[in-house]
Amino acid sequence: MAEEPKVGVYVCHCGVNIASVVNVKAVVEHASTLPNVVVAKDYPFMCSDPGQNMIIEDIKTKGLNRVVVASCSPRMHEPTFRKALERAGLNPYLLEMANIREHCSWVHEKQPQEATEKAKDLVEAAVAKARMLKPIETVRMPAVKRALVIGGGVAGIRAALDIANSGFEVYLVEKRPSIGGNMARLDKTFPTLDCSQCILTPMMVEAAQHPNIKLLTYSEVQSIDGSVGNFTVKILKKPRYVNEDLCTGCGICEQKCPYTVPSEFNLGLGKRKVIYFEFPQAVPLKPVLDRDNCVYFKKGTCRACEKFCPAKAIDYTQQPKEITINVGAIILATGYGLYDVKTKMPEYRYGLSKNVITGLELERLTSATGPTKGAILRPGDKKEPKNVAIILCVGSRDEKHLDYCCRFGCVAGIKHAYYIVSHIPDAKVTICYTDIRAFGKGYEDFYARIRALDNVQFIRGRPMEIFEDSNGSLYFDVFDQNTNRLIRLNPDLVVLETGVVPDPSFEQIATVLKCSRGPDGFALELHPKLRPTETSVDGVFIAGVVQGPKDIPDTVAQAGAAAASAIALLARGEVESVPNVASVNQDLCSGCGVCEPICPYTAIVLEARNGGRVAKVEATKCKGCGACAAACPSGAMTQLGFEDKQLIPQIEVLARGR
Ligand SMILES: Cc1cc2nc3c(=O)[nH]c(=O)nc-3n(C[C@H](O)[C@H](O)[C@H](O)COP(=O)(O)OP(=O)(O)OC[C@H]3O[C@@H](n4cnc5c(N)ncnc54)[C@H](O)[C@@H]3O)c2cc1C
Ligand code: SF4
Ligand code: SF4
Questions:
Q1: How far apart are the first and last CA of the chain?
Q2: Using alpha carbons only, how large is the chain's radius of gyration in Å?
Q3: Atom 8 in ligand 2: which residue has the minimum CA distance?
Q4: Rounded-to-10 torsion of CA 540, 544, 548, 550
Q5: Is the shortest distance between the CB of 309 and ligand 3 below 6 Å?
């Protein structure tokens, strides 16, 4: 026979958050009159140690077998109180919470009387449900002690190294021929102006040589199945047409290849060969043959690379290779791309005038390994610019385009002013800004240093449109808000510090993983303050700009935090299923299959039974959303902790009126 419910009710004051509006003593008094309530108490901070100990003590001494806590949102403290029940030896799912803060005192601040009555109802409803609660057991599954990092920018490399250094194996998948990401394109990094490649290359090499890291470059994730602790990932390794085991990276193929095309790494500003290394410090240092532009693949002639390769590494027959891996945790580090100002903001003439470039293009022009070997030359006529305009917030903080701040554009623009005046001392730079956001460590000093230069002027205003006269000279007007003057500028080079967007491939990865994205398309963290590296999918973490624009120090810090979360999961070696999962009574199931396509997590399969079919729930995939239970026409599907016989008494209390 089922045990008689013995309910304890605990009403929290939440300091004055609840108690200044709701009469907690009256709520306690009401609760003590409810059926099966053995004890009802209030306390200033129920989540504090003494508050929890009060509950534990009562469970032990008064034989409570159900607990109701009336306090804040269960999102805040449900885990706290569940742990308290567990410490007292009670199943943690014999707890029900009544939210009398967010749902009551905070929204009825001006109506204390009514708020108190509502709090009584919320507590009574919670008691009605608590009486019907059943213990729920969690399922524990072994976790694969291996991780996957998607994206080999500085975030992905740092996360992979941290995981590998903790003794776990990690796959690092990068879609481009080399790891390094956008940081590899930068010449120097603000505010210290240290050479970007000098600090990045050692990390890239360390990742490639680490015994626990399996580097899969020129590779893309095709599909991800499974759930936390046991993901099955299919990866497509694209053919380089070079046998990586034989290739010594000597570069003779690149030298001998007679054909050139625009270089993607240099953002179209320079050329590369058809068989090429992405950049001189590429890791791995293996070339890629660009099949679409290769004369051998197009016409069957040439084969110069094959003829000259001393290692006999060229392999025109190479095919894409599908690799399947099993991992327990995934870190997304797919980074960013630039906002498409060419099509979205034609008024700035990017793509129309060769002398309007982006900040990232200026990085390539300034870099010693760039198309001009470090000389800042106008793409239009290859002359040194003497009058440069740098426009900040292009596309950013603009409700017609991207309403968010890119967080590094201002300081990147200031760095770019430094690049120009240090390379061309007689050049003059004008920075058009909205307001300068230089919030990082050492950024304000750097800003002050550049602002003090005689040949760098700052204008507070955004130009509306850039014009080009018939001689190809650029000009625009900008209203300086500091002096209330309209100023005309005639720059011979314009640098646009453009907004940033998530890498376009992130949308597909997020869809495959069912990982939430924010309205801006970046990955949505589980909690913006308290769980910034976790996603809505257990076992999937985020690092770097995939979560939102950030500079390198913040990217690296977040990568370390994401790696730590993944390491904690792998070190535990097992995962617990979500307890409030769906559960099928197969005797009631008609096999209609309505639930299967409704489940957003593909957690339901239909299996053969007695010549028919019945639904089965894969507990580790189920997230307890309840969609299947609501849709099941036979009443066979229920969600543990939210069964009809538990919810209906609760609703009845709230629906009866007073
Ligand atoms: C002009 C400019 C100047 C800057 N200067 C500075 C500076 O001086 N100092 C500073 O602190 N910050 C600077 N930044 C910011 C800096 O670039 C970023 O903070 C940093 O690059 C973020 O690293 P990430 O790894 O998150 O992303 P990324 O560098 O974008 O790397 C992401 C990687 O993931 C790969 N990838 C994407 N999708 C997939 C996929 N589906 N599968 C596999 N791989 C994938 C990409 O190819 C890329 O290699 C600057 C930015 C710009 C635009
Ligand atoms: S075969 Fe193709 S890649 Fe090789 S050298 Fe000729 S064009 Fe270049
Ligand atoms: S010539 Fe051969 S060994 Fe040298 S880089 Fe090219 S493919 Fe590799």
A1: 35
A2: 31
A3: 257
A4: 160
A5: yes
Residue 488: predicted pLDDT: 96
Distance 184 CA to ligand 2 centre (A): 26
Q: Which atom of ligand 3 is nearest to the CA of 256?
A: 1
Residue to mutate (ligand 2; options 302, 309, 317; most atoms within 8 A of CB): 302
Provide mean pLDDT across the span 356-381. 96
- Residue to substitute in 215, 552, 556 for testing ligand 1 pocket (most ligand atoms within 8 angstroms of CB): 552
How many other C-beta atoms lie within 10 A of the C-beta of residue 15? 10
511-541 burial, b at 16+ Cβ within 10 Å, e below that, comes to eebebebeeeebbbbbeeeeebbbbbbbbbb
Please indicate whether residue 313, judged by its CB atom, sits closer than 6 Å to ligand 3: yes
Q: How close is the Cα of 243 to the center of ligand 3, in Å?
A: 9
Q: What is the pLDDT of residues 459-499, one digit of tens each?
A: 999 999 999 988 889 999 999 999 999 999 999 999 999 99
Question: Phi-psi region for residue 630, left (φ > 0), alpha (ψ -120 to 50) or beta?
Answer: alpha
Check: CB of residue 171 under 8 Å from CB of residue 148: yes
Tens of pLDDT, residues 322-331: 999 999 999 9
* Whole-prediction pTM: 0.85
Q: Where are the beta strands (DSSP E) in 505-568?
A: 540-542
For the stretch 332-351, pLDDT in tens is: 999 999 999 999 999 999 99
